[in-house]
Amino acid sequence: MTQSIALPAHASYQAALQRQNSLTKPAGSLGVLETVACRFAAWQGQTIPAALTPAITVFAGDHGVTAEGVSAYPSIVTGEMVKNFAAGGAAICVLARAIAARLEVVDVGVLGQLPDLPIVHAKVAAGTANLAVEAAMSTTEVEAALEVGRTAARRAIEQGANLLIAGDMGIGNTTPSAALICRLANLEVDLIVGRGTGIDDAGLANKRRVVAQALQRLQGQQLSGTQVLAELGGLEIAAMAGFYLEGAAQGVPSLVDGFIASAAALAARAIDPAVAAWLLASHRSEETGHRLALEALGLEPLVELGMRLGEGSGAATCVPLLQLAIKLHAEMATFAQAGVTEKD
Ligand SMILES: O=C(O)c1ccc[n+]([C@@H]2O[C@H](COP(=O)([O-])O)[C@@H](O)[C@H]2O)c1
Ligand SMILES: Cc1cc2nc[nH]c2cc1C
């Protein structure tokens, strides 16, 4: 069994809140920036949290369910985008450079070979099976993919990260994500399945049918978190779940990206509910169902930007906001220091 997950330090949260209320502004006037700073205080166990050192790990994998015509793009794009990540040309590469974040790319299940690329080669299988008709993975494969994610989190933390971001790349992965969200949060297919990379109305109807069929296969079965991942998940999604679990076990919070990341977070929570206290949501993705997935996680997104890219891009975009929240918390003068009169 892996290390257990502790609760964030409540006393540090309270001390940070007290500091927020002593800073030269009307109480609560910095809104969510105040609560975010207090949450980092609790995660780091200190009233004034250290500046953030973010690390981004993009997990890539392919999906057998693409045989059902659920994506606007062919599976070959997954590997092609991994090459683009390695060459520094993808959105997440630009964002990682802009926020000075360590960026690592992990092949956990891409179809075909990616020789000589400067990425982490940790392929558990060459894609998943078609979840519409059979389990996407074996539980052994899920355990291996979870461990790939855990190892990646440990590497990031060893190299100094105090904020983790998991990104995903996998043509077809909004289908397993939707299936996981429906099953794990007990939500209706039509509320959760969306257009992903941009399928048309007929494609959407087909994708709903595919997800409904997968859920139907499992109806009435009691399954563990690992078993649900095996039936409905993906290799990169399982790795992301392992990444969140390990971060939490090591006392390092994760900033949850979009739709796929939220499905992975729900899977992580099904494995260990204590992980939830170590998660912060970045943006609300345009993907149908993300709002309900976040609600099921008990997370409030920081921003809504109409994004639906994946790769960890929404989370990376939110990092400067978090850095500002902590800087305000650390550097603003108190009423006493500035000689400003407090409210009556
Ligand atoms: O993160 C999101 O909210 C998101 C929403 C829609 C699509 N994506 C990305 O698009 C790919 C999956 O879309 P699809 O249509 O192939 O299932 C995958 O590589 C994801 O990273 C990501
Ligand atoms: C080009 C492309 C880039 C992506 N990045 C994440 N998902 C993606 C899907 C496509 C199709």
UniProtKB/TrEMBL annotation:
<keyword id="KW-0328">Glycosyltransferase</keyword>
<dbReference type="InterPro" id="IPR003200">
    <property type="entry name" value="Nict_dMeBzImd_PRibTrfase"/>
</dbReference>
<dbReference type="GO" id="GO:0009236">
    <property type="term" value="P:cobalamin biosynthetic process"/>
</dbReference>
<comment type="function">
    <text>Catalyzes the synthesis of alpha-ribazole-5'-phosphate from nicotinate mononucleotide (NAMN) and 5,6-dimethylbenzimidazole (DMB).</text>
</comment>
<dbReference type="GO" id="GO:0008939">
    <property type="term" value="F:nicotinate-nucleotide-dimethylbenzimidazole phosphoribosyltransferase activity"/>
</dbReference>
<keyword id="KW-0808">Transferase</keyword>
<dbReference type="InterPro" id="IPR036087">
    <property type="entry name" value="Nict_dMeBzImd_PRibTrfase_sf"/>
</dbReference>
<dbReference type="InterPro" id="IPR017846">
    <property type="entry name" value="Nict_dMeBzImd_PRibTrfase_bact"/>
</dbReference>
<comment type="pathway">
    <text>Nucleoside biosynthesis; alpha-ribazole biosynthesis; alpha-ribazole from 5,6-dimethylbenzimidazole: step 1/2.</text>
</comment>
<comment type="similarity">
    <text>Belongs to the CobT family.</text>
</comment>
<dbReference type="Pfam" id="PF02277">
    <property type="entry name" value="DBI_PRT"/>
</dbReference>
<feature type="active site" description="Proton acceptor">
    <location>
        <position position="311"/>
    </location>
</feature>
<keyword id="KW-0169">Cobalamin biosynthesis</keyword>
<dbReference type="InterPro" id="IPR023195">
    <property type="entry name" value="Nict_dMeBzImd_PRibTrfase_N"/>
</dbReference>
<protein>
    <recommendedName>
        <fullName>Nicotinate-nucleotide--dimethylbenzimidazole phosphoribosyltransferase</fullName>
        <ecNumber>2.4.2.21</ecNumber>
    </recommendedName>
</protein>
